[in-house]
Amino acid sequence: MKKLAFVAAVAAVAAFGMTNCATCHNGSMAAKLDTLTPAQIVAKMKEFKAGKGNATMVSIAKSMTDKEIEEAAKKYGKKAGKAEAKKAQQEKK
Ligand code: HEC
After folding, report:
1. Which of 13, 24, 74, 76 makes an SS bond possible with 33, Cβ 3.0 to 4.6 Å?
2. Every domain of the chain and the residues it spans
3. Is there an atom of ligand 1 within 6 Å of 56 CB?
């Protein structure tokens, strides 16, 4: 049953191009993503996109554009990194 739900989640991601990473990365099916910085997530996603690592993630990464990956990384990555990015942006202005 659990496996069926997992397959359904993968199919939903593939069909709708959803970037709802928390569907799986909720601490039960897969590790939470907020332990990684957005930059680390982007780096991992690039590896997945190149076909390396977890097969589920490879198919998800391949269905995403680089821009979508960056947005997802910002959304799900470490919040401290987000605050820093905001600060850096404000300093630029
Ligand atoms: C269908 C389920 C599923 C979805 C949706 C999903 N992932 Fe994953 N992801 C996994 C699994 C399974 C692993 C490998 C096991 C683990 O790291 O806990 C993984 C691994 C990863 C890793 C590597 C973690 C590490 O520490 O090495 C990253 C980064 C990642 N996913 C990012 C994402 C992002 C970003 C999204 C949304 C765009 C996403 N994932 C959506 C299932 C999923």
Report:
1. 76
2. 2-78
3. yes
